[in-house]
Structures are given as C-alpha cells and as structure tokens.
Amino acid sequence: MKRRSDLSTPRGVRSVDFSYDSEIFGQFAESIARFLGTARYLVFQTVVIILWIALNVLPPDDLQFDPWGRGLVLLTLVLSLQASYAAPLILLAQNRQERRDRATSDTDRAIADRTKADTEYLARELAGVRLALSDVVTGEELREQLDKLVDAVNQVAARLDALESRPERS
Q1: pTM of the prediction?
Q2: Which stretches of the chain drop beneath a pLDDT of 50?
C-alpha cells in the first residue's frame, strides 16, 4: 500500500468508470425493438421453438439436451432471458419515440401558433385595406359626378349665352 504524505484529506472512492454513449445504445435498442416487432422475428422464434421441442422429444433420452420429462426447463430459461432483455429494450425504444413525438408536437404547436398569429395579422391588415378602400371613389361614381359637372357647366354656358344675346336696356 502506498503511503500518503497528506493525511488531512480522505481517500477518494475508487470506482470502475463504466460509460457508454446513450445515443448509440438507444439506436441499438430501437433496432432490436423494430426487429422484435416484425413477422419475420415471430416466424423465426416459432421455428426455433418447434425445432427445440422436436430435438428434445423425438431422439432417445440420452441425446436430449432439454428433456421433455423435466418440462423443457432450458427452453423456459432461454425464453425468460429473451423476454427479460426484450422488455427493457422495447421500453427504452418507446421512451425515445415518445421524446421525439413530444419534440415534434412542440414544434408543430409553435408553427401553428405562429401561423395563427400571421393569419390574424393578415386579417387585420385586410380589414384596414377594406376600410381604406371604402372611402375611395369608384370609377362609376367619378363618371356620374363628371357628367353632373358637365351638365352644370353646360347650363351655366347656356345662361351666359342667353344673357349675352339679350339686348341691353338703357
């Protein structure tokens, strides 16, 4: 044992550093969960179990590695082990998918809020433009007013002509 010169500080706790990349492990868990959820895996597992049972029922007792008489204990152990690893991997994959769905939902909600705000702004702007245009004279109204003005000018001109053509009284 190595002696320390400074006895005023306690020794640090020695621990084994076990670190892993959670992203890589998560991707691995998702790939396993995707495989376990396929028909290919179910067919593969069914074939393996049928072969296992056949190899432990059909041959003589001395060639059976997991005898039927003991209740296929090894098969039960293998399936339990597979299930004990599959369940946490599937849960991990579901948790990762839930986080992705939540992030997507938050993004969609933010986009919807922004779209709603933009739509409301454009509706207010459109209402303002409509109000501004309601005070603008249309071409038809302008023609009517010009026709009235031309008629009034013609009447004034006719009166002036009539006044000029009248003899003056002295």
Answers
A1: 0.53
A2: none
